[in-house]
Design brief:
A: two-stranded antiparallel sheet, 2 strands, B: 174 residues, Four Helix Bundle (Hemerythrin (Met), subunit A), 2 domains
């Protein structure tokens, strides 16, 4: 059970993330500089992505019982690290306008990213829980980061309480599954589940509690109550991080856990997942109709999007991991784009999160309005955008498993969703008396927005390179 | 030994329920300590004396003392002063004492029978725990250290009392 040199190489992406966090901390201790901390973080994240190619030839590799470094993990680590780069770019422009020191934020982002990377690579309950806690503990402080304003503090405390409760559910569930099988390794659990002589009355409640814990993190209905408040209160780049990296890593883990152990095949759980998916799709889309706050609308929209993903998850064919991976990439790009617009438009006093802030934006800042329109269309799943291809694959996965009721609900709720996205779009283009804005926007944020819109259109028009990549990487999962 | 396990479990559940239903924080903490002690006895009976000792030292010892200090240092004004005077009333300490006495009786009974034959044949001591921590769970230990780092940085930022505009001064004095 010794860790060898090849194990270190396979773990290089994670080790670099951890080292970067320490380097940024030491850097901040020597010299407090927002620009220095942000650039060190960016360099570390870039090296971590680069090291994926060094690690790739050694894969798949089980590094101690805790971590399974395979192509599936590498794909999601790359996605997570790239998303963190976008977060850092957005956060730099956003926090530059606030007084105070911001070096701690980058350490927290790095630790949270490390946690997400551990989550997508974990093959053991211990690494699952540690990854989750790394992510959550950093997120508490990231949400409450502007600590002199009441709204972020409130959001931070809400997230702290609810995430702690959900972690307790998850732990209890893991304890029950451990009680039934005497092992915490996913592979071992799969082997025991295949034999019929286990105690169903420990496994079933245990799995249900694990689903509850996952559901809280993924903000699936009926565990979604914290989402709008936290999204609204958190600084916009942090909201983007929660909506994408935190949820994406959790979903990748959900897929790995259930597909590897096969516990989603347990009979009553089909029904449970269907009910959660339907509740999320309806709840997210209908509640979003009632909102006037763009961040809250995006929060409810993310609940609905996770519901769509759950449809693909349930399809459980070969198509499912592909559909989930592509949908997550499209969803990451789009959500970062939407929150990125909110970020660059926010000034030093409050976030630009009311629909009123966007009325007539096209006449003031045509480029930003056009980008926001593209992002909203992608969230709604309109063709030419990445969101359309993603939704197409989810529907295809659902249809291939003949889950017609779920697919029909997906289409119907998407149509409902169109309404609130279009409401923002209408506000963007409505006539306004304001003159074109003269102040310039934060450059790193604008650069990342341009990159995101290019990615959005590229994935919408030419999805095949990414699909080919996913096809090459995903079969290792099951 | 099964009877010891069940009695300790009952004590743990009773203490936790009483803790949750207390109004005063200090009173609730007393029950929480008893609950943790009962869990330590359960660990001991299950053949994990090392974990039982850790449970005592870390939870019932260090963390609880920290809790009690925080509650007392918060200095919540007149109301608390009056409440503290009532702290020594029998209604406050008699419940936790009875539960703790049950645990003590169990412990003496076990000692009188000449130590514990663990429920299973194996007894997990410090050596086994250390070997597995620095063998298969090595990465877990490392990740825990990163977790502490993240928590520390977050707590430092949220708790720092410096006014924002003075935060850069120490950079000029290397």
């Amino acid at each position: 059970m010794n860790v060898t040199g090849s194990d270190f190489t396979a773990l290089l992406p994670l080790i670099i993330l951890a080292v970067t966090a320490i380097v940024v901390m030491v850097g901040a201790a020597i010299r407090r500089s927002h620009a220095l901390s942000a650039s060190l973080t960016l360099i570390g994240l870039a090296i971590s992505i680069g090291s994926l190619w060094i690690a790739a030839p050694l894969l798949p590799r089980q590094v101690t019982p805790l971590l399974m470094m395979d192509h599936y993990a590498v794909f999601y680590i790359g996605l997570i690290a790239a998303s963190s780069i976008i977060t850092v770019l957005l956060a730099y422009g956003y926090f530059e306008k606030y007084e105070g020191s911001h070096d701690e934020l980058y350490i927290l982002i790095l630790v949270a990213t490390l946690g997400s990377a551990v989550l997508v690579a974990s093959s053991h309950f211990v690494s699952l829980f540690l990854g989750l806690e790394l992510l959550s503990v950093s997120l508490y402080a990231m949400i409450a980061y502007p600590r002199r304003r009441p709204l972020p503090l409130e959001a931070g405390i809400k997230y702290l309480v609810l995430a702690a409760v959900s972690a307790a559910f998850l732990l209890f569930g893991m304890a029950l599954v451990y009680g039934a099988f005497g092992t915490m390794e996913f592979g071992e659990i799969a082997a025991r589940l295949a034999r019929p002589d286990f105690n169903l009355w420990l496994v079933l409640p245990g799995t249900a509690l694990i689903i509850t814990g996952f559901g809280f993190k993924l903000a699936l209905a009926p565990f979604h109550l914290w989402t709008p408040d936290v999204y609204e209160g958190a600084p916009a780049p942090v909201s983007a991080y929660i909506a994408t990296v935190s949820k994406g890593a959790m979903f990748a883990l959900l897929l790995r856990y259930f597909y590897q152990t096969g516990s989603h095949e347990l009979e009553p759980l089909h029904l449970v997942f269907s009910i959660i998916a339907i509740a999320s799709m309806f709840g997210g889309n209908i509640l979003a109709l009632l909102q006037n706050n763009v961040k809250r609308i995006l929060a409810y929209s993310s609940i609905a999007h996770l519901g769509y993903l759950l449809v693909a998850f349930q399809a459980s064919g070969d198509l499912a991991p592909t559909a989930v991976a592509f949908y997550l990439v499209a969803y990451f790009v789009t959500t970062f784009g939407a929150f990125g617009v909110v970020t660059v438009l926010s000034d030093g006093t409050r976030d630009a999160d009311l629909i009123e802030d966007y009325r007539g934006l096209f006449w003031r800042r045509p480029a930003i309005a056009a980008i926001f329109t593209a992002m909203l269309f992608s969230l709604a799943g309109i063709p030419v955008t990445a969101g359309f291809i993603g939704k197409f694959y989810v529907v295809a996965a659902g249809a291939s498993a003949a889950m017609w009721s779920l697919v029909v609900i997906l289409v119907v709720t998407s149509a409902i969703g169109l309404f609130y996205y279009l409401r923002i779009v209408v506000a963007l283009y409505s006539q306004s008396t304001q003159t074109p804005a003269t102040t310039s926007l934060a450059r790193p944020g604008v650069v990342s927005l341009i990159f995101l819109s290019a990615a959005l259109i590229y994935l919408g028009l030419f999805p095949s390179p990414l699909l080919a990549l996913i096809h090459r990487l995903m079969p290792g999962l099951i | 030994m099964t009877i010891v396990f069940y009695v300790s479990s009952a004590v743990a559940i009773a203490a936790t329920v009483l803790m949750l239903t207390r109004v005063r924080a200090v009173h609730a903490l007393l029950y929480l300590i008893v609950s943790l002690l009962a869990v330590a006895v359960i660990f001991y009976v299950l053949g994990a004396p090392f974990v039982a000792a850790l449970e005592l030292i870390i939870y019932a010892g260090a963390i609880m003392v920290l809790f009690v200090f925080v509650v007392m240092l918060l200095n919540l004004g007149e109301e608390t002063v009056r409440a503290e005077r009532a702290l020594l009333a029998p209604s406050m300490w008699i419940g936790p004492s009875v539960l703790a006495a049950i645990l003590l009786a169990e412990f003496i009974w076990m000692l009188a029978r000449g130590g514990v034959p663990p429920a299973q044949a194996v007894s997990i001591g410090p050596v086994e725990v250390g070997i597995s921590l620095f063998g298969p769970y090595l990465i877990g230990v490392e990740l825990t250290s990163m977790l502490l780092l993240g928590g520390l940085v977050g707590a430092y930022h949220l708790g720092s009392r410096k006014a924002p505009h003075t935060e850069v001064t120490h950079a000029t004095h290397p």
